[in-house]
Specification:
By secondary structure, the chain is mainly β. It is 0% helix and 40% strand. It is built from no helices and ten strands. The strands form three sheets. Strands 4-5-10-7-8 form a five-stranded mixed sheet, with no helix packed on it. Strand 2 and strand 3 form a beta hairpin. The two termini are 32 Å apart.
Length: 154
């Protein structure tokens, strides 16, 4: 609450719109809040099947202090912004490709191996592939291991 300001709160199923009017009555600020996606945190990573295509949004995603810092080679300083998490495992060794091509904003992809956020091993990452602001990672995976895929904004 800001002293001297008035406002309204109108909720919908997908966003909350808040209108705040300054005391002079001649300015309106409208902010939309989108709830975080289900896989906003590592602990709620969404399982991927093979082959799998997910058309999802990172709108409303947050940056968590528990997200691992990205190695310098990723071209992202520190931790990513607006991150979402997926997990993937295969019963046999294979090669996989992950991309955010077609996204309408700047992205990065980081792949980690492990089962706990505090004990992840960096595998690969990409930021700005093929002359775009989107990302592509192609790696060989070992059967029986779990890989976590972090997608976010640099």
């Amino acid at each position: 609450h800001i002293a001297g300001w008035t406002g309204t709160d109108n909720d919908t199923s997908t966003a909350s719109t808040n209108t705040v009017t300054m005391p002079a009555g001649d300015h309106t600020l409208t902010a939309k809040y989108l709830p975080a996606p289900d896989n906003d945190y590592f602990e709620f990573a969404i399982d991927l099947a093979s082959p799998d295509t997910k058309n999802t949004s990172t709108y409303g995603a947050t940056s968590s202090v528990t997200d691992p810092p990205l190695p310098e080679e990723c071209g992202v300083s520190g931790r990513g912004q607006a991150t979402v998490w997926y997990k993937y495992s295969l019963p046999v060794d294979n090669a996989i490709s992950i991309d955010t091509l077609g996204s309408d904003f700047d992205t990065f992809i980081a792949v980690w191996e492990g089962t706990d956020i505090n004990d992840l091993r960096f595998v690969a990452c990409n930021n700005d592939a093929k002359g775009t602001k989107q990302s592509v990672v192609a790696i060989k995976v070992t059967g029986g291991k779990t890989y976590y895929i972090e997608i976010g904004q640099p």
